[in-house]
Here is the input.
Amino acid sequence: MIQCHGLNVRAGSFQLHDVSFTVPEGAYAVLTGPSASGKTTLLEAIAGAVEPSSGTIHLNGRDVRRLPPEQRRLGVVHQHGYLFPHLTVRENVEYGAFDSAGARELMQRFSVYHLADRGVVALSGGERQIVALCRALATRPRILLLDEPFSALDRPRREEVRARAAELHHDWQLTTMHVTHDEGEALAVATMRLHMHDGMLS
Amino acid sequence: MGAPARAITVLVRLSAWAAGAALVLFLVLPIVGLVVAGASGVPRALHDSELVSSLGVTFATATIATLIATLAGSPIAYALAHGRFRGRGLLASVLDLPLLIPHPVAGIAILLLVSRDTPVGDSLEGLGLRVVGTPAGIIAAMLFVSAPLYVSAAREAFARVDRRYEFMARTLGDSPSLAFQRITLPMASRGLLSAMTMTWARALSEFGAVVVLAYNPRVVSVLSYDRLTTGGLRDALPVATTLVLISLLPLIALRLLGRDHGTELVG
Here is the structure.
């Protein structure tokens, strides 16, 4: 469960104002909104990349404002992947993995196991996003934060990956928060919707 | 574009090329001339025991100065690249200061600090460490002039690594120090090696500050000056040529490090 209450975040000249919402355990919340409306900043505040100036964040009932990112037990997938370029695909997925068998199973499930021993620099944008998703899932997080995670995938592959991610979401009872610009994607996966405009939820 | 305007453009372009070519020639010709004139004396110079000993002192002191600059400068470089703290700009400016001081003046400044009858000099003597006229003095002089270069280049190397990589590592369970070791350090390694090479090259060729602090034991730059003043150009030439050829080593290393910048480990 993700609970934010009265959240104010200042990130450079940008600000989130009094953001409050609850994503129940196991729900799939899709966060939409125009560019620069604060969607990514909100995910970063939940993940611990930026510190709120006021307000509370509870993850599965635990106040995490003072917790560093490594203790928040969540998986994060950014649209650029941020795969570690000096490691292979396998090393990336196993980086924080619960176990290597699980990491392998995820690579097989998302059809990237054949890339396991390749460096990540040569991967396409879409392959990077899938590997980044596997890397986040391999830690067996209870909460998953996705920031435009499938934006570089072509439509058939995107639907396939989304379907497999949805299976995992269901099987693992993952609480998911997914930022997207794609209305079709939002309709396909959301069990709840949030919309952000100008640093505020509407 | 009319004919006169086109002619002016061509003239400006030609002037720019001519000025650039003249500068390159000015920078390269003296060095090429020196190597051509002195190359034949290098094999004999390598049997010169004073030069061989001087090379040993130069390599050892430059390497130690580089290691100190790396160990002490890397945390500062990282903080300057990614830290958000009050006085960051001031710290960066202060660290650039040694680059602006003429090197003999830098030597005099260190001499004032560490010579006998000064609190620092007395404390160092108490610890059994004499700086003036010893390899420690050479290292101090080399460190003073080269460490700012290391900090500046290492800062660039760290700044090129997007902080999100480190953050991703932390969401995957790493502590800040582990994320630094496993992600930032390897990703910045090429830039850091390049910074170390530059620092070593700078230390290797230092003369002004070294000659003030420690004329003896003689590093190669001091030896070439010594030979020039005592024996003239003919005696100085083989030593100077050897120094130029040695200085090519870091240049080649930098070229090799920079050769595949297209696949820089920074996303």
Observations:
- The radius of gyration of chain A is 16 Å.
